[in-house]
Design goal:
The complex is a heterohexamer, with 3 copies of chain A and 3 copies of chain B. By secondary structure, chain A is of the alpha+beta class. Chain A contains 2 helices and 7 strands; from the N terminus they run E-H-E-E-E-E-H-E-E. Chain A has one domain: Alpha-Beta Plaits. In chain A, the strands form 2 sheets. A 4-stranded antiparallel β-sheet of chain A has the order 2-5-1-6, covered by helices on one side. Chain A has a two-stranded antiparallel sheet with strand order 3-4. By secondary structure, chain B is mainly alpha-helical. Chain B is 62% helix and 1% strand. Classes of the chains: A alpha+beta, B mainly alpha. The complex binds adenosine-5'-diphosphate (ADP) (3 copies).
């Protein structure tokens, strides 16, 4: 089993989510995060004096899939729908997952995903 | 409320005044100057003026705090990412607008009339207008002008450029509001219509609220809907506001200020009808809230607080014109209808794809019209032309015939054409002048605060934009 | 405040009036009609009425804004997940309640008395009651009725069904409040007690606050505590409110409105005692805040802002009955005791497992009683029966003997029995009728907003429920 | 506003009064008692007093709500982690301060003067001072004292120990404010300066705002800047406030209350100049907002809402002294200059490394001075010494010569030396007594709420401290 | 070392936490997340028009344990205490962890857990 | 590729971030989390009655690096700059990462990091 973790733009979440559901992956977890990378932050102002916001709001989308083969279509769907072509589009990381448990039933392994 | 030059002397006020005049003749007669900046002469000649000054100064303060009410209501019904922008607009429409009204608007509205079309004296409240009574009238009136101005903020929220809004604020306070105001309250042609007692509007359902509401409609149309409001199929999507506590606070503050708005529009402390006015204001607001809640619950089975809040304001707008001419039970009926109108209006504008983020057009525009017509229906003949003195205002249901209703309908038609028409022209013109009155899509998505204002409203909180997550 | 029919003519008011009457006889005499909807006759016969109308209209507006204060205070002291529900209840208790008071309550309270038990005229303010003076009295009184109603919202917060609350609002404004009010202010039996000058309550420590507080206690008991408030061992757990800024704002607004509440209860601008009343109001609130903070700091070593805010309101409630009859230093003592009472009350109710989320019972109930008793202790004989005219009200400490204190204690006992008793009956009845007045546990955990209202208060913020995380 | 003992009888007031006196002589003469706690005698002797009581009670209520305005503005401009602490300070500076002013301050300010230096009678408003007129004056004045006190809260925000702030509150209300107040309004030496008509300050640009502003400057200096405000190179870093909606609400409430502050300072309803005062207040605030926005936009190209909000208050502070003596256009100029001053002040204090979190020194201190000087420049000779009666106040631009400007400059210098000097002494002394008036660095980083108050303002929200994240 | 990541209902956090402490695992990290899975979202209303909330609030509980044996009791404790039996109870994922460092002391490996 | 996940004190974020940028690792993702460990919570008060805050605010800093060698300097930089020496300084966890994708370009592997 693999975890696909994508850091994406907040405004792309809904289209990415729809694409993943169409692919048959409804289960996912989202976290509001702040990111810093190639994309530059921006300058803000407070009563005349300026300051820089260096971390920009992003959404971390986590999705555990049953096996390695499922990774490819999911990654492609995310790349396709999350991309704008500008700095700040984000990244996808793939991690190994050793076990999954569904709390409701206690099922384990691929069935639980 | 209608223009007041000098102090009205109805029969009983006359009692006091004649008495005091008699006494004052014991002293050296003071030549009545045209302008009395210190107030000494005014008080000497009209001792009861001191009552009116107390009355109007406090009433004006109450109307002022409605600015804070509008600010909180609008902010609460919009998204957190645009709130700095909204606060800026709310602060500046009053600030810019009051300077514009001081310079030009007041003179156009209450200056000596030229053919019932526009006023022509009192620019900058200088010269002859540097007078306590003129200043007092201006004080009360500038609050009304600014109220009309700030109503529009809600309809054009979350997408209009600040600069466009600033320019709009000048135009509504310097031209659109004062000219229509002159026709109704400044001795202009609408007040002289040959139906009923002429077109009347006690505290401004038409002059203030319908003007604001329909200029707002024009703005909403020229701007188009916010990104995400309607999908490709044209289906409306809800874009919930960011704070129901602030929205509720806004409604309570507005309701509070409305006592100054309506009762203060007697312009004289000797008009004891103020008690009836204040009661009617209370009852219509209550009834508006109750009936909008009943209506929306009937349709959606939800106790929708946003709609109930809108309903209370709708009731207040509806009673603003008739408040002095109707009885308590009629105020309840007027408020109830207003509550229904606002529900149908909000749902209806969604259906025809007009995006009015806070419901300003339904609340102030549609109910402004309703308030005007309600005078023609429910006026019960117990009160006269903005005073206890006749001719009495009598509506259809009290045997007054159709005359007053016609006068009201004419005024309603005129305010729609004038406000919506000029609004369209104004925003189209600004659109050309400023190369668009709408912010760039990217800025709209990020929120207007980060771009033009260089700062967000809530830097210590993680703000999430709900709609993209559903 | 006590019932006013026509205009009081104390000695000096008489001076003005007789003078003006003399003058008015120069004109055609106007036949005094029973009902004067325009106010023309009233002004003619009582020129000083214009002062009273200014006074009461503004005072009523100030009392109205207390609704906004209660809304902010209650919201601030409760959790974010229930705030839409609270705003709905705060808006609707006024809206529904004012219609109920208009229909029935006002007539029961101020109509012609039947044996000192209930009033029987003035339904719907129609007929003879379509009169500026009647409308004025209603205006002020409806604000008081709604204040009593909204106090209960805090005690039953975060778990009562909306529908139950709506029905409760009707009953308190149509029955519970007006009947007790009739006994004290409507010429009823409590005001005629044969001790002291009879039971007196200047602005409603008993009539408004104790009624609200003890109906609230009944509600809190019938509902039971919120999930998580007490653990299996019965140990109380803190459930902190979601916004100390809104809570503080609520207190400032309430304090502001209280100037209208207390000083306005003179009901006449000719009662210059209003200055003493307003000063006493200020000092008692200050002292309530200071002493509740001292007390809670002594007990817990923390500068607990929630308690200090409660303390200020406690001081205000405590001074409400005695405000016109005591001197500045006494107001400070009364406020100080109120501050102590609220601390002991809040901690005590926690100990006996009564869950009152905002402390309404301690603030309004216990201190309502304290305010009534304080009259019997501190009244200094410098002011009469709601006017400058005698008999003077004198308390125990000023040599008035125990009479007044007895009258106050009787009233206090009656208000407790009446409000708490009828409250219990009412909520038990509703519990049966509605198959429970409490929402389902799942709804309570998720928050009341998501279920019945279909929406949350702060959709742009991530709301966390603190207690499950500790 | 200046001390009033008994009721002013200007010419026209005289008309009313002599008339009524004549009538009252028909009755048994009532011996004028020194103290009239019920108000009966006062009303009999001065029937127009009833007008003044209405006027002042409501004006005082309006000034009171400014406390809520300051609370919201200060809270909004500071970080969420310190908000409980700020609410505590805002509540308690009024509560403690009003008790201190009642005990000592009022007597020092308005008691019988000893050589123009200090008042010496009226302690605890007891004895001869248990009088409706004295209580009325106290009512209005205590609000002013508390306003001065609360201004300082902003300048010392986010780092001062609560206990130090409590002690400071006593000293400013019992000593610093009343003594300077005595010199200007209590018949003291500044009002008797031999230039112009003596030093004048209509509603307290100097007495209230400059006193608060410069005591605040002393506090900010003794405390030093907040951690993170200036980096090792001394470069200022922005520390944004946590809620622009609350900040905006605060400004609207303050502006609303200012109508009571300025117009109420006539202290008499017979001064119809109140209309001019209220209009000037409106125009200066508007102009302050507009010009501060123009200035900051010129410098930074951003529509900085924090600065515009500060600008509105700056305009209000600037017009507070001259409000009764200038014309509308001059109010606009005064407000415009105030708007520029506040921008330069805020940027300037940042540059010289004085950390004033909300800009209180620039808004209230610098513009307090500006307001005093503006009288000497723009007073147009149409209004007299706090009344319609002469000598008229005439400034340099209206041909009054340099005399009045000198009187104003002297007062300005004195208020700076007095407030800043005593402020320094006070805070240094407290620093020694309390082993530091500043909280520990760890507490400052965590926020003051968690430590001393044992609770946070927003437990249902995740609060992030923005600056460490940039 | 393993990381146990459980996505659970917010209202179950306190009981789960107590159970884990009893087992001897006091160290844990919580994140407010939003989840989507079998559990359906719900319809909300805004001034008369309706919208669907599809992501529901969940809490992500992360707990790193010293070795594979520790995983079982922890997972059992979580399943037992987080379960309500209704859709939305959440899932547990197990990941390999290569190294742990305690920042305060610089200790590494199992001692640092 | 490895993921370095550090749970640190919120007030240390800016210095840690600067240090990592100096090392040449600008890309990172931050999440507001709440933690519980050796560090004790604290007692709070609400209108006279007390309650304990057991989870304290922390920031989770996630940083994916191209290879195992990069881990050491990064971990050292974090330890050095995040440490105060008091309980609550937090922990660093290292996880294996199987793949990285840059959404903007579709690049994969070490180039994408
Ligand atoms: N090495 C990394 N480790 C963890 N998160 C990263 C890393 N690099 C980038 N990110 C995350 O991805 C987001 C987008 O990165 P950025 O470099 O701006 O995108 P792009 O490469 O498409 O321009 C960042 O805001 C950050 O949250
Ligand atoms: N494949 C997945 N990857 C990541 N998170 C998931 C996945 N499936 C479920 N979740 C998370 O678990 C939560 C509960 O899932 P759900 O399917 O509703 O539970 P159940 O299977 O017990 O009904 C979701 O809200 C989501 O946060
Ligand atoms: N075993 C663990 N699994 C996950 N997170 C942990 C673990 N132990 C500690 N943490 C996280 O690290 C933070 C600091 O832990 P703590 O034990 O207080 O630090 P220290 O060991 O330096 O005193 C905790 O608040 C928690 O977020």
């Amino acid at each position: 089993m693999k975890k696909i973790e994508a850091i994406i733009r907040p405004e792309r979440v809904s289209v990415v989510k729809e694409a993943l559901e169409l692919l048959g992956y409804p289960g996912m977890t989202l976290t509001e995060v702040k990111g810093h990378g190639k994309q530059k932050g921006f300058v803000q102002q407070w009563r005349g004096s300026q300051y820089r916001i260096e971390f920009l709001p992003k959404v971390k989308l986590e999705l555990v899939v049953e096996n390695g083969e499922a990774v490819k279509p999911v990654v492609e769907a995310i790349v396709q729908h999350a991309r704008t072509g500008e700095a700040g589009d984000g990244k996808i990381f793939i991690y190994p997952v050793e076990e999954v448990v569904r709390i409701r039933t206690g099922e384990r392994g691929t069935e639980a995903v | 409320m209608a223009i007041v030059r000098g102090w009205r002397t109805p029969l009983c006020g006359g009692v006091i005044l004649s008495l005091l005049f008699a006494a004052s003749s014991l002293f050296q007669p003071v030549t009545a100057l045209a302008a009395d900046p210190s107030g000494e002469t005014t008080l000497l000649e009209h001792p009861s003026a001191s009552l009116d000054f107390i009355w109007i100064v406090f009433a004006a303060a109450l109307v002022f705090i409605m600015q804070g009410g509008f600010a909180m209501l609008t902010a609460g019904l919009c998204r957190a990412k645009n709130v700095v922008n909204l606060m800026m607009k709310n602060l500046m429409d009053f600030s810019i607008g009051s300077l514009a009204y001081f310079s030009v608007g007041f003179a156009l509205m209450f200056g000596a009339t030229r053919g019932g079309l526009l006023g022509t004296s009192g620019w900058f409240l200088s010269g002859e207008s540097y007078d306590v009574s003129e200043y007092l009238l201006f004080l009360f009136q500038v609050m009304f002008a600014a109220t009309a101005a700030t109503i529009v903020a809600g309809a054009v929220a979350e997408r209009m450029k600040v600069k466009a809004y600033f320019l709009y604020s000048i135009v509504i306070c310097a031209l659109i509001y004062p000219l229509y105001g002159h026709w109704v309250w400044g001795g202009g042609w609408l007040s002289a219509l040959p139906f009923g007692v002429g077109h009347v509007d006690f505290a401004g359902s038409g002059v203030v609220h319908a003007v604001g509401g329909f200029v707002g409609l024009a703005g909403a149309l020229v701007l188009g809907p916010r990104i995400g409001k309607f999908d490709r199929q044209g289906k409306p999507h809800a874009i919930p506001g960011h704070s129901m506590t602030l929205a509720a606070l806004g409604v309570f503050i507005l309701w509070f200020g409305w006592y100054g708005f309506n009762a203060g529009s007697t312009l004289s402390a000797l008009e004891l009808r103020s008690a009836v006015i204040a009661v009617n204001t209370t009852l219509a607001a209550s009834s508006g809230a109750v009936f909008s809640l009943i209506a929306i619950h009937a349709i959606t089975k939800k106790l929708d607080v946003g709609m109930a809040l809108n309903g209370a304001i709708a009731g207040l707008v509806g009673i603003t014109a008739p408040c002095a001419w109707v009885e308590g039970w009629a105020a309840i009926v007027i408020g109830a209808v207003a509550g229904l109108i606002v529900v149908l209006g909000v749902l209806g504008f969604d259906r025809i794809r007009v995006d009015d983020p806070v419901g300003a057009v339904s609340v102030h525009g549609l109910n402004g019209i309703w308030g005007l017509l309600a005078v023609g229906l429910f006026a019960d003949g117990s009160y006269g032309l903005y005073t206890t003195e006749g001719p009495m205002v009598v509506g259809l249901l009290y045997g007054g015939g159709v005359g007053q209703l016609v006068a009201q309908a004419v005024g309603a038609a005129v305010v729609f054409v004038w406000a919506f028409g000029l609004g369209l022209v104004l925003f189209k013109l600004l659109d050309v002048l400023l190369r668009g009155i709408r912010v760039a899509p990217q800025e709209e998505i990020e929120g207007l605060d980060v771009g033009e204002h260089g700062g967000r409203a809530y830097p210590n909180f993680t703000v999430v934009d709900e709609p993209p997550l559903h």
